[in-house]
Amino acid sequence: MRLVLVLAAGLLAAGTALAKDPGPGGRLAAACALCHGSAGRPASAAVSAIAGMPKSEFVARMNAFRDGTRPATVMHQIAKGYDAREIELLAAWFAALPKEAR
Amino acid sequence: MKTFDRRDFLKLGGAAAALSAAGCATTGAKARVVVIGGGFGGATAAKYIRLWDPAIEVVLVEREEAFTSCPISNLVLGGFTGMDTVRHGYGGLQRYGVQVVRDEAVAVDPAKKTVRLRRGGDLAYDRLVVSPGIDFTYGDVQGYEAAMQSGRVLHAWKAGAQTVALRRQLEDMRDGGVYILSIPTAPYRCPPGPYERASVVAAYFKAAKPRSKVLVLDANPDVTSKGGLFKAAWKDLYGGILEYRGNAKAVGVDAGGGTVRLEVEDVKGDVLNVVPPQRAGDIAVQAGLVTHNNRWCDVDWRSMESKAAPGVHLLGDATLSAPGMPKSASMANNHAKIAAAAVIEQLSGRAPQPLKIINTCYSFVSGSDGIRVSSVHQWDEAQKTLLAVKGAGGVSAARSAAEGNYAWNWARTIWADSLG
Fold first, then answer.
1. Angle, CA of B276, B279 and B282, to the nearest 5°
2. Per-residue pLDDT tens for B62-119?
3. What does the DSSP assignment read for B143-163?
4. How close is the nearest chain A Cα to the Cα of B140, in Å?
5. Chain B within 8 Å of A98 (Cβ-Cβ)?
6. Residues 6 or more apart in contact with residue A8 via CB below 8 angstroms
7. ipTM of the assembly?
8. β-bridge partners, B67
9. Going by C-beta distance under 8 Å and a sequence separation of 6 or more, which residues neighbour residue A53?
10. Nearest to B190 by CA among B165, B226, B152
11. Distance, in angstroms, between B291 CA and closest chain A CA?
């Protein structure tokens, strides 16, 4: 029984550490996880890690993808699907994520 | 932290009744969500519900011990990677507190809100997520089931044992042989998948048995996805190896004679890879979730809730696709996030909010070079569905090794996003 309680507490702690109320920014950002990872950290260095990226840099990059001034293989096509309000939401969400895995 | 081993799966699997009895009262969970099917849709839904609201108990019912990814499995057929690359365990989901029950859901009672398990009794739920994948309508191709039972004709359109068997057939085929890939009428799982398969098998032949041929018999009038990019690769890389025929629908197969029967002629081959027409997976049929043409399941795209059964969310390839939306792993993964957000809202008595999502599908045209198609989909209040955002999305400028690298990053990242 004690083991079960310890196990349950362990699961709960793990869940709490990983869990975060996503709010509108987190829900919108979840679609980016296909290539950029669940927490803004992709599986390889081929793709930009966006966790912890300063908000202003994220917004500038997305705008540069949108207007074609930043070269890209795919992001110029994806960025055009998001408006200024949505880019702000995404920027704030990713800026608040830790750069390194906890 | 303790991770569950196989014995724990089995214990849980035989203990649906115990899980039900434990219920919300003793665990303190505010509700229980049962998820049927641990593919890109179901696994992602289970994870994200726990990630976004750990107060909800999540039980994932999956009949296989491990997940086998269809994306990248064509590279296994070409001999460019192994099955271990595409097989992934469910251990990662337990980090989020998902309870994985290894059993098969055989029936759903939406009125009583229970799922019947093959081995373990009934499982009660507050909301249900069904991610059934596809099954085949074998009867559409005369002689198919007998030919498949004999092991002579394979689809390998669910990655797993058939992938291994088809690779074996390709290895055993004589140099100078003909590999036939028959593609069903759209919609089917993974629109570019057949053309990727034809390409990487041609790459294998070119290197290992260059007198051999890939013959693509497509029921559709033309290549259904990334047509320009695939055809350029075929012309540049596989001239004399790969032949494509549109409007070539397989209506029958004869394993003994080694023939695929089209409407007007019979075509002979050495390896017969006939992919039959598809529909929503069996459990969706059983649960009464199929609404369209006896094949697909219509949903409310704000919540992924079934149009046929309130309280039941339906994800992935089994959906009646929204306009311009492919049956892809990326879409199933993002359907799951719509459903996760909706489930959390609905369990709190709030209305689900529409969610904008992205599709990105990479394909290999050789062992190393990739191509891609992307789109962004958002809720349209007038048409009450998800529509592709105009001006966004598109395909790769050209095939490249860089796109191949991005394809591998996509695969590894979506596996981690879906499975923990």
1. 110
2. 999 999 999 999 999 999 999 999 999 999 999 999 999 999 999 999 999 999 999 9
3. THHHHHHTTSEE---SSSHHH
4. 35
5. no
6. none
7. 0.92
8. B88
9. A40, A91, A94, A95
10. B226
11. 27
